[in-house]
Amino acid sequence: MADGSHRTVARRWPRGFGPGRVRGEMLVLGLAGALRQLLSDGIWGLTASTARAWLSRFPHRTALISATGVLTMISLGAAVAVTGRAD
Questions:
Q1: pTM of the predicted model, to two decimals?
Q2: Residues 49 and 76 placed together within one structural domain of the fold
Q3: In this predicted model, which residue has the larger pLDDT, 45 or 84?
Q4: For the chain, what is the HEC assignment?
């Protein structure tokens, strides 16, 4: 402004939002996070199901999957036994 006066531009906030209005923002952020988790877990679940179906078409693949699972559990158990920590 040429005369040196400063005017604040009024912001138009959606209902439930704005300075001091935390409830609406928390609701939106919470719902966005829940939706993101739902989509992510769904995609991982479908991918795992598809991979399992593909791998289990042949008996030797199924045996390999089982052996890998057993070795993983033994390794985790041994690591906990040696370190004494579950993390």
A1: 0.49
A2: no
A3: 45
A4: CCCCCCCCCCCCCCCCCCCCCHHHHHHHHHHHHHHHHHHHHHHHHHHHHHHHHHHCCCHHHHHHHHHHHHHHHHHHHHHHHHHCCCC
